[in-house]
Amino acid sequence: MIRTLAVASVLLVLTLGISVGVVEAQVSSPREIVYIKIYNEVVNNGTTGIPLADTGILDFNYPVEDETQRIINVSAWFNGFPAKYTVTLGEEPSLRIIIPGTTLNLTPGAGASAWVEYAVEVDALTRGQSIQAFSNAYITGNISSLESEAQRIYLSDHLRRYIEETPGWNYTNPLTRLLLTYISSQANISNPIDVVKAVVGYVDSNLVYSIRMPPREPWETLLYMEGDCDDQSNLVVTILRGLGIPSYQEYGMVFVSKDFRLEEVSDNGLLNITMVGGGGHAWVVAYIPPWGWIRIDTVFGVPGDWLSHIVSIPYYTYPTVVMGANTGEATQVAWLGFENQITNARLKYQIVYEVSLGEQV
Q: Where are the beta strands (DSSP E) in the chain?
């Protein structure tokens, strides 16, 4: 038996295959309606029955609701029929489909499917206004104004949790310590803008975009100097935390284009993933006073221009739906557990993510 696992939740960030530069859907209206469909299907290729709840196909990410996005509609299905569900809110909201008692066990050779659809209104105007000072500095080229306005970080009890070291965000690892020492020699560590500039500049100049499953730990990303959105954001969070800047990883769904399609097969054919119209993405959220929490994305932006990795990223410029925040652990830890579980239980998965746009508001 395997423990309950939200399959789509684990895969949302880890399977992103969007190439830098292919995103076509810049926000053209203050508000966009984004439609998201997540489809889970599982077949038991093993020799023993498995409780359906333990396969993880009934558990889904659930969009965050805040001042920049709201959920307009939610619907769920199980084996082709409308289904009831429960929602758990928090930093990583989730939805669980409720199934009839007669379908609680997945016998050998049997399969089941479940899916959800969300309609989410994204308020791009409010997001853009939150970085007005950064946009002005980018347009005018007056970067010094940001450095002079930035304030020293004083850690409250609330903020201290965002600089904690975790097994996945390990800033005492020898390789990450070397980078911390280097950044400290290049930046004024009492000025958060100067630190962010140095960290983003280093990643932008030295790392090559590359997808791998399972994801890399921060020290691996440094060792091989490559990584995708998940790897790069984990590295940036690790270094920022090591330098005393509160930060965490945020993830969501990004619309790319109506023609976008990506298919991935792994784990000897047990895991099949398809993305249509868009896919999952991950980025960094860092606390920079006096502006508060600012999004940073080293995957998107103009090479060699650190500030573009704030003002030109999907969260602020594309129809992007936030699905959760990882504030306590890096995602490669969850992936390794998931990979072992599906292999041991001989479960075959088909996961489909679809992202599309509705009418502008």
A: 31-44, 50-51, 59-61, 69-78, 81-82, 84-88, 94-98, 105-106, 111-123, 208-209, 226-227, 247-255, 261-266, 271-276, 278-288, 292-296, 320-326, 347-357
Closest CA to 163 of 65, 58, 241, 85: 241
How far apart CA 38 and CA 26 sit, in angstroms, is 23
- pTM for the whole thing? 0.89
* pLDDT tens digits along 156-196: 999 999 999 998 899 999 999 999 999 999 999 999 999 99
Residue among 188, 104, 185 nearest 153 (CA) = 188
Assign a CATH topology to domain 125-251+280-322. C8orf32 fold (3.10.620)
326: amino acid identity, one letter: N
Contacts with 132 (C-beta within 8 Å, 6 or more apart), sequence order: none
Specify the long-range contacts of residues 127-130, CB closer than 8 Å, at least 24 apart: 127/68, 127/315, 127/316, 128/316, 130/291, 130/292, 130/294
Tokens of residue 306, six digits = 């650190």
